[in-house]
Amino acid sequence: MRKIPNSKLFVSEPPPQWFGNESNPPKGSAPGWTNENWLKSRFHFSFAEYNTHKNADYGVLRVMNDDLVQPGRGFGTHGHANMEIVTYIVEGSLTHKDSMGTSESLGRGSIQFMTAGTGVRHSEHNLDKSNPLRFIQMWITPNAGGLAPNYGSHETSPDERKNGWCRLVGPVPGAGANAGTAPVQINQDAGISVAEIDAGRTLPLSVPAGRQAYLLCVEGSATDGAGGESLERHDAAEIKAGTELSLTAGSEGAHLLVVEMAERAGSGRKDL
Fold first, then answer.
1. With bands split at pLDDT 50, 70 and 90, how would you rate the model's confidence at 178?
2. pTM surpassing 0.85?
3. Which position among 69, 117, 168, 266 has the lowest Cβ density within 10 Å, counted as fewest Cβ atoms?
């Protein structure tokens, strides 16, 4: 397990006008705001103003952005193409609208996907006027270009995520390992699972030969009993093929997300 500490993530706080938002309110004047800027985003890989060839991707995982959006703010309508975009909601409510006619709001533990394919336009907003929204958005390179646009979502319960891996995303039929079995299916040999572990409980994570994984500590903390490495909130780790982890949650528990995929030699950060 190769730890990617929170301190190594690029933190972006773009001007509100970039995405069609009103100016930020004066400091301390807006109830429910937990950050002075409308958006605080942690980039795990090269993205937007963080442009570096030393940290371009990890296998087919091209983007992982950890976004904190303040009340009444969001991303105005913009376009995507030729990417599988998957979003996991950590807290608050995310409202999505797109050019395919989709419009829905999703809360904690929900997952949504969008096959951008030949082109999709969408918006993402926190319409709640009192509470922030946090979500993890992942872009996964598809196995083909020019796919038909598609959208879908799935909601999970706390019990489904409790003390065990809850598989949320997997490949479409014929696209890879355990194809066609996950509630959300994408056009790539990759999967996403989450778990919320009680304090002191231990959960194994196995990455078999021919696979690799990227692990994010969403909330709380966890320590690997085999290697002794600890991950706290916002920390991540690259996990190589053939790795067996034994993850024990800290005193506040652990909320973990893992993206596993076919192994690609040479991928990963070059700037640690």
1. confident
2. yes
3. 266
